[in-house]
Amino acid sequence: MPSDGTSDSGSDVVLIDRDDISDYNPDHILPVSANDIDGIRGWLQPTAYDDRFGEYQKHLASHAAGTGIWLTSSTTYREWLRSRQLGTLWVKGIPGSGKSVIAAQLIDDLAAQHPGTPILYFFFRQIIDANHDPNALLRDWLDQLLIYSPPLQRCLNEYVKARRPLDTLSMDDLWRDLRLALGGLPNTVYCVVDALDEMDQGHDEFLRTLAGLGLWKPDKVKLLMTSRPIARLEAVLRKVEMLRIRLDETAVDKDISIFVQRKLSSTSITDTDRKLVLDAVPGRANGLFLFERHVHGLT
Fold first, then answer.
1. Phi and psi dihedrals of 189, rounded to 5?
2. At 96, is the secondary structure helix, strand, or coil?
3. How many helices (H) and strands (E) does the chain have?
4. How high is the pLDDT of residue 5?
5. How far is CA 118 from CA 37, 75, 108, in A?
6. Which residues does 125 contact at the CB level (< 8 Å), separation at least 6?
7. Distance (Å, rounded) from C-alpha 154 to C-alpha 1?
8. Rounded to an integer, what distance in angstroms lies between the CA atom of residue 36 and that of residue 270?
């Protein structure tokens, strides 16, 4: 006999709740409260990544309009944005070639071009205590994703309510929770990591997992990494399929010329001296923005 929907026998009716469908439709998970978000962030202990004196803002402020266009207009960069097979792009350049400024500008550009889309970023720095441990990247990215992902909010809030110390979570645990959030988002997520060479050594598996993030869901997760071209990183990542760009000395010299010209425009040096300085850039800067510092010191 068909059930009329009111039977309490339990033989024809299966009751489900939100937890039963969350894996299939994570958007149905309600966000946690603002107080809970604050508690999660206190527990995560992220770096001061959004501080106006932090690495991102510092390097973004150093960007000169009109520079870096050669990279974003390159075939390889455009392929990275469009590809459904390769989601990782590795940008390599010698020290002082402007990698960090490029990374900061790309973060800003991507945020402007894709409003409401998560843009995750991290700047490795050996000279900053909080910025050379790979765990710090994972904590920052979880924090940056938090407002976009109710499933992640619920997962991390359970740790907080259980009073679980953050240091009892392994790197694998943090990667799992990060993928939980990334996998449930409707839009593409862009991730930018600057200066892989300044990360603590001894974390080869982390590097491979990071670089492989763009192969996990290459149409939904886009990862851009920068570093010096050093043998240690090449050896670890040589088998990971990805796109690569080497900062071109000629193109960087053109960027330096633009940068120097803007700097000189605010000085009182004569037109003749200004021309002498600008003419000295090609062939002498050698793709180094450090050359600009020397020029600026002379003015």
1. -110, 135
2. coil
3. 14, 5
4. 41
5. 17, 24, 12
6. 55, 131, 132, 195, 198
7. 41
8. 60
Per residue in 85-107, pLDDT tens?
A: 999 999 998 887 789 999 999 99
φ/ψ (deg, to 5) at 269? -70, 155
**CB neighbour class for 94 (10 Å; exposed up to 12, middle 13-18, buried from 19):** middle
Task: Assign domain 21-247 to a CATH class.
Answer: alpha beta
Write the pLDDT tens digit of every residue in 240-293. Answer: 999 999 886 655 555 555 565 565 566 667 777 666 655 665 554 444 444 344
Q: Which residues contact 216 (CB under 8 A, 6 or more apart)?
A: 87, 179
**Hey, is 88 helix, strand or coil?**
strand
The tally of CA atoms less than 13 A away on the side-chain side of residue 230 is: 12
Q: Please name which of 78, 64, 99 lies closest in space to residue 228, comparing C-alpha atoms.
A: 99
pLDDT at 280: 61
Predicted TM-score (pTM) of the model is 0.78
* CA–CA distance, 191 with 52 (Å, rounded to integer): 20
The pLDDT tens digits of the residues spanning 195-215 come to 999 999 999 999 999 999 999
Joined tokens for residue 15: 């009751």
DSSP, collapsed to helix, strand or coil, labels residue 223 as: strand
* Domain definitions of the chain by residue range: 21-247, 252-298
Q: Which of 139, 133, 114, 140 is nearest to 56 (CA)?
A: 140
Q: Is 19 helix (H, G, I), strand (E, B) or coil?
A: helix
